[in-house]
Amino acid sequence: MTYTDDIPFLEEHVNVIPFLAEEGEFYFTLGVKAFRKREFEKAERWLTRAMELAPDDPLYPCQLSILYTETKSFHKANQLLTKVLQEFGDSYVDCYYLIANNYAHLGLFQDAQKNIELYLEKEPEGDFKNEANQLLELLKLYNEELDEEDEDDEWLFDEEDELLVYQESAFYYLEHQEWEKALPVLEEMMTLYPDYIAAKHDYAWALFFSGDEEEAVELEIEWHKQNPNSIHSIVNLATFYYEMGEFERSEGYIEQLQNVYPIHEQQSLKIASALAHTEHFEWAYERFEQLSKAKLKNHMSYFRWYSRTAYQIGLETKAKELWKEGCRRHPFLKQFEHAKNDR
């Protein structure tokens, strides 16, 4: 699906090539070409550049949202589309259909139905009329099933698929520091999947940074007593006490992490980030150097804390490169202070 089927491409054989480096259309065209070749990283880079050069053109974020949908980054897609609707109103009614499609992929069927109905109400003869009506019928069936008393037998996703939806939503909110949105998702995860241990520690993290520090610390201390070897608890308590200015307590937990080298990449990232967060930059850098960027490139925190760590130990060029790459992959990262000042 692309918004650009009728957009002419640059002529291959011309005597004079105009300089278009400051025009969004040039980069937009490059982005669409890369998208059609399924070179998604390159396409994202060009489309993001087009948006930077022409922030008032809603076509560019719409196309980038389609790329995000294709790469299953549904939250990122909807963030762009919602912004287009906020800035341009009903001039881009198709956004409602695209948003609904993303919500459906996330399993948020009621939100999907609401947006598909808005689309059909505002554009009953729109380009996506047939697709929208088909999706609406499916969504009505799904939502009816979810309302039945014996819905446990009617789930369209199995438990593993359902957990993945929760994980993606929680991950998105935590990475973007949207604590108030993360908390209810994590509460549901703790109830529905009590064996998924990470949810409760992520809940304590969101609780702490949303302002309820005392309860977050109390919860984490209790869980640490139950499992003294929990990396989640040790990382959280080290960070919590550091943020509260209780540096000796923080240091006690940091010492417990010095000889811990987890198998899982995400746990290793937690330790590296905690070391950076608590200003143990030499140790942090050693850990970051051992991580696989290929496995963690979707983690905004990887680029945030790695770049800060590199800067703090004097590797300014590397820090800038990491920060630049992080901002390219995760434009939201720009809202944090630069690596050298970020905390």
UniProtKB/TrEMBL annotation:
<dbReference type="InterPro" id="IPR051012">
    <property type="entry name" value="CellSynth/LPSAsmb/PSIAsmb"/>
</dbReference>
<dbReference type="InterPro" id="IPR019734">
    <property type="entry name" value="TPR_rpt"/>
</dbReference>
<keyword id="KW-0802">TPR repeat</keyword>
<keyword id="KW-0677">Repeat</keyword>
<protein>
    <submittedName>
        <fullName>Uncharacterized protein</fullName>
    </submittedName>
</protein>
<feature type="repeat" description="TPR">
    <location>
        <begin position="24"/>
        <end position="57"/>
    </location>
</feature>
<dbReference type="InterPro" id="IPR011990">
    <property type="entry name" value="TPR-like_helical_dom_sf"/>
</dbReference>
